[in-house]
Amino acid sequence: LVTNLGGYGQFEYDYLVAAEWAAEVTAGRGAEGQSFDNGHGGTYKVYSTVAAAVTQAAIDFASTTPAVVFVCGGTYAESVVVGLNQYVKLVGSGRDSTVIGGKTGVSVGPAIDATATGSRLWISSLTIESNDSTSGTASAGLKTTNGIIMFVHDCHIIGALGPSGAAQYGIDGDPFGSPAVIQNCNISGAYGINMG
């Protein structure tokens, strides 16, 4: 399947994430991770959560090859972990229509955790909203650390004071101590970037 993503032209992906896929799985009309022909000699797998697609990508792809995950419009209130030496490209259907984060719960981690050694992350066209850990510990939308190669483009990154009263940063960590680009992004909320 080839999708036109506005300024990115024709774009093939390895994983398609659609929240509606869960209903298809429940009804017995599909399975998480089911493969489909992309019409161009390759395949892609379908998941209902971003975390499941990124976890599978760590298994399917070598660290030098980027796994491309296209996330359909919707809200994905979850925690996504980019693994050790994993190279992931997360592409949403638009920063006004695709949201990752906004989850509330005990000891909830960041919406996207890219702190593992050797992680490389490319994020485009989505909103990253800080998760809120009701235990009162700080969380984040995007958690990173020095040494992570990162490119974030055309995103809305939201940090807020969560219901627990702890700071929920949009970006937590030092994304600028290593090769990092944050371009054409709107960073908003009470807590934007924590570089401490």
Number of helices: 2
Average pLDDT number: 82
Strand content: 35-45%
Question: Segments where pLDDT lies below 50 for 5+ residues?
Answer: 1-10
Strand count, sense and barrel status of the largest sheet are:
8 strands, mixed
Strand order across the largest sheet: 4-5-3-6-9-13-17-21
Helix content estimate: under 10%
Q: Give the N-terminus to C-terminus distance in angstroms.
A: 42 Å
Q: How many β-strands, per DSSP?
A: 23
The shape, in one word, is globular
How does the helix and strand content classify structurally? mainly beta
Quaternary form? single chain
What value does the Rg take, in angstroms? 16 Å
Structural commentary:
9% of the residues lie in helices and 43% in strands. The chain is mainly beta. The strands form five sheets. The protein has an eight-stranded mixed β-sheet with strand order 4-5-3-6-9-13-17-21, covered by helices on one side. Strands 8, 12, 16, 19, 20 and 23 form a six-stranded mixed β-sheet that branches. It has a five-stranded parallel β-sheet with strand order 7-10-14-18-22, with no helix packed on it. The chain is globular and about 45 Å long.
Brief digest:
This protein is mainly beta. Helix content is 9%, strand content 43%.
